[in-house]
């Protein structure tokens, strides 16, 4: 049979079936499906000796044509999807997106650098929305604040910083290490920080300001010594890395905030 007739037979039967409503289904096909369909066209080509367009090209052409029709038709339910953003808004969107991407990359770089610097493993990022730059320690998210405040002001700063926020409490050796890692990442030179522990009215009983249980401690040997009977608040990294000391609450130190979720 002449190639022209074969080609017409193919186009009027196989191709019309193969590409019927192609804009609807082709986009969701797997690569495997697409290859299988393309094989049908290939067979038709080798039988008829004529060249047929690639299925992908047919799809592209039809999608573009369909989009044009929708753009032209104001009554089409999907018409609004094709309205152009005003140029200012568009620029703003692109800038925000670019900044977001940069911020994410900076963070990623930051986190990676630190893994190398810190002898212990750096805790991973907090998975609470808007607090992704905080760190996940146990069931809490923690952040270092490089801002010297007395114990009370630091606590209020933490409350303002996050819902349920407080100066950080510590409940395990591992968490203590994680917190210390965060501190040294941000301020190696001056790592003395407030944690959320304080002595309850000279009772020698220590409590956490976030009301969690006092179930772990890591004092420097000889502490808490309540020096001059004036030390009621808990600091970390005085004298020994990762160890605790009682200090005067009015002293100003950097601090760690945390919230549990
Ligand atoms: Ca005391
Ligand atoms: Ca002390």
Automatic annotation (TrEMBL):
SMART domains cross-referenced by the UniProt entry: CLECT
Superkingdom of this protein's organism: Eukaryota
Name of the protein in question: Lectin-like
Organism, scientific name: Chanos chanos (Milkfish)
InterPro entries hit by this protein: C-type_lectin-like, C-type_lectin-like/link_sf, C-type_lectin/snaclec_domain, C-type_lectin_CS, CTDL_fold
Positions of the C-type lectin domain: 137-258
SUPFAM superfamilies membership: C-type lectin-like
Organism lineage string: Eukaryota, Metazoa, Chordata, Craniata, Vertebrata
Keyword list, A-Z: Disulfide bond
């Amino acid at each position: 049979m002449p190639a022209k007739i074969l080609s017409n037979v193919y186009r009027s039967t196989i191709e019309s079936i193969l590409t019927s409503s192609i804009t609807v289904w082709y986009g969701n096909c797997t690569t495997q499906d697409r290859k299988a369909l393309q094989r049908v066209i290939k067979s038709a080509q080798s039988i008829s000796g004529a060249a047929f367009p690639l299925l992908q090209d047919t799809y592209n052409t039809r999608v573009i044509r369909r989009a044009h029709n929708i753009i032209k038709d104001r009554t089409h339910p999907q018409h609004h999807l094709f309205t152009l953003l005003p140029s200012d808004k568009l620029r703003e969107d692109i800038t925000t997106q670019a900044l977001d991407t940069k911020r994410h990359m900076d963070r990623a770089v930051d986190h990676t650098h630190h893994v190398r610097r810190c002898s212990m493993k750096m805790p991973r990022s907090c998975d609470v929305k808007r607090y992704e730059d905080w760190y996940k320690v146990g069931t809490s998210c923690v952040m270092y604040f490089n801002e010297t405040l007395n114990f009370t002001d630091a606590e209020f700063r933490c409350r303002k910083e996050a819902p349920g926020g407080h100066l950080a409490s510590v409940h395990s050796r591992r968490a203590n290490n994680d917190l210390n890692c965060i501190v040294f990442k941000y301020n190696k030179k001056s790592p003395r920080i407030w944690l959320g522990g304080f002595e309850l009215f000279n009772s020698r009983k220590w409590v956490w300001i976030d009301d969690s249980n006092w179930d772990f401690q890591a004092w420097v040997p000889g502490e808490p010594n309540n020096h001059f009977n004036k030390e009621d608040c808990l600091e970390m990294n005085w004298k020994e890395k990762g160890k605790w000391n009682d200090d005067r609450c009015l002293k100003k130190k950097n601090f760690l905030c945390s919230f549990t979720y």
